[in-house]
Amino acid sequence: MKKIKNISTTQLALMTAAAIISLRGLPMMAQEELTMFFYIFFATFLFLIPAALVGAELGSAFADRGGGVYTWVKEAFNRPMGFTAIFLQWIQNVVWYPTVLGFAAAAVAYMIGKPELAQNGVFVGVFAIVMYWFATWITLKGTSVISRITSQGFLLGTVLPGIVIIVMAIIWLAGKNPIAFEHIPDSVNQIVNTAGNHAHPRFFPHMTGMSDIAFLAGILLLFAGVEVHAVHAPELKNPQKQFPAAMFLAALISFGLFTLGALAVAIVTPYDQINLQDGLLVTFTQLFDHYHIGWLTNIISLLIAFGALAGVMSWISGPSRGLLWTAHDGELPEFLKKTNKNGVQIHILLIQGCLVTVLSSLYIVMSNVSVAFFLLSALTIGLYLIMYMLMYASGIKLRYTQPDLQRSYRVPGGNTGMWIIAGIGFLAVLFSFIVTFFPPSQLPVGSPAFYTGLVITGTVIFVGIPIIISLTMEKKRKKQALHRQHT
Q1: Cα–Cα distance between 448 and 455 in angstroms, integer?
Q2: Which of 335 and 225 is assigned the larger pLDDT?
Q3: What is the pLDDT of residues 197-235, one digit of tens each?
Q4: Rounded CA gap, 414 and 399, in Å?
Q5: What distances in angstroms separate CA 300 from CA 163, 168, 280, 372, one per listed residue?
Q6: Considering only CA atoms, which of 89, 106, 136 is closest in space to residue 356?
Q7: How far apart are CA 239 and CA 10, in angstroms?
Q8: Phi and psi of 308, rounded to 5°?
Q9: Which residue(s) pair with 193 in the sheet?
Q10: Is 201 strand, coil or helix?
C-alpha cells in the first residue's frame, strides 16, 4: 500500500525550525554585536542549507532502513565509520545537555529572585546534574506526557519569549532609549572600528587571528540538527521542489528569530553585561525594570527554564535510539541492547547519565561559568562537525558507488551539483572545526594552551572511543565465526 504523503512544505519548515531554534544562543551572537550578521550568514548559507539538502537525499534514499547517519555512512564506507558517525551524533548530545541545563539553571536563578546564582558554578553544576537524572527517570517511564511537554515547551519557552524580547526592543527603540551597541568599549577592536575619535560597530569582524572568530563554532552549533528531519522528505507530495522550499523557509525563520533576538539583546544590554550563561535574562530584567514591570522577569524566566528542560526531555531518548540500532547490528556489546518494560534503552541511558554528570561537574570546578559554558559548546560542535564531514563525504561517494539507488529527493545539478553543495558544506565545516581549537579572545579563558589542549584531548578521546569499540567488536565477531567453523 502506498504511503500517504501528508506533510506540507510549511509543516516541514516549522518542524525543522523547532529542532534548530534555541534562545540560549542569543547572548553568544549578541556578544558579536553587529558582526553577528557575518556569523549568521555563514551558518545559514554555508552550513544549514547544504546540510539540509544533502541530508534530504540520504534520508530519502535510506528512509526504509532506519539507523539515520549510521546507515548513510556505513553504506558509503564501512560499518566502523558508520558507527563512528552515529556515536559522534550521540555523544555531542551528551556534551550538549550540560550547556542547555546550565541555561535552565540561570533562568531558575532569576525566577527565584537570586540572579547571582546564575554565575555560581556549584549551583549551576548541581542543578544540571539533578535535573538531568530527573528527566532520565521520566524518560524511563516511557510516558506519553513527554510529547506534550516538549511541544508546549517549544511554544511557551522558546517562541513566546523570543517574540517578547523582539517586541520589547522595538518599544525600547521607539522610546528613544540609548542603543547599547553604539557604546562598545574601543578596546574590543574585533567588533568596533576605532578609526577617528569615535568607536563605530563593525559589520565584518576584524581578524588578527583565529581567536577573534572562535565564536563561529558555537554559533554554528545553534544551526545544527537539520539532518534529523531530512528523513521526512519522502512524505512530501513533490520532494524535489517542496523540500528545498521547506529548508529555505526554515532557514529564513531561524535567521529571522536568531538575528532579531540577538539584535534585541545587543540594543538593550551594554557589552560588558552580556555573558553566555544569563545574558538573555539580564536583557529581560533591564527591559522589564525600565518599564516598571519587573515581576514579569520571574514569569519569563519560568517559561525559559521550562523550554530548556522540555528540550532536554525531547532529546534524551532520541539520539540514543541510534546507538540501540547499532547494538542490534552487532556494533556494541550485548548488554547495551537491554530495554525495560516500556521499550526504553535503559543501559545506554544510564551510561549517558553518568557522562552528563561528569561533564556538568565542569561548572563546579571551573571559576568562570561562561568559560565552562563555551568550552562545553566548543567540544560539542567539534564532535558534531566531524559527523557532518562524514555525511557530506557519504553523499558524494554514494553518487558513484550506488548511482541507481532510488532517491525520492536528489540534490539538483547531477553529480556536479552534489560536489558543489556537499563541497561547500564540507569546507565550511572543516574551517569551523579548525576554529574550535582556538580560545575566543572575548572570554577570559586563562591559559590558551590549556584551553586548546583540553579541546584536543576531549576530541581525540571521544573520536577514539567508537574506533576502539568497533575494532574490538570486529575481533569478537571473527572469533565467534571461527569458533562456529570448528564446532
Answers
A1: 11
A2: 335
A3: 555 556 665 555 565 566 666 677 777 777 766 656 667
A4: 9
A5: 12, 13, 11, 25
A6: 136
A7: 13
A8: -65, -45
A9: 200
A10: strand
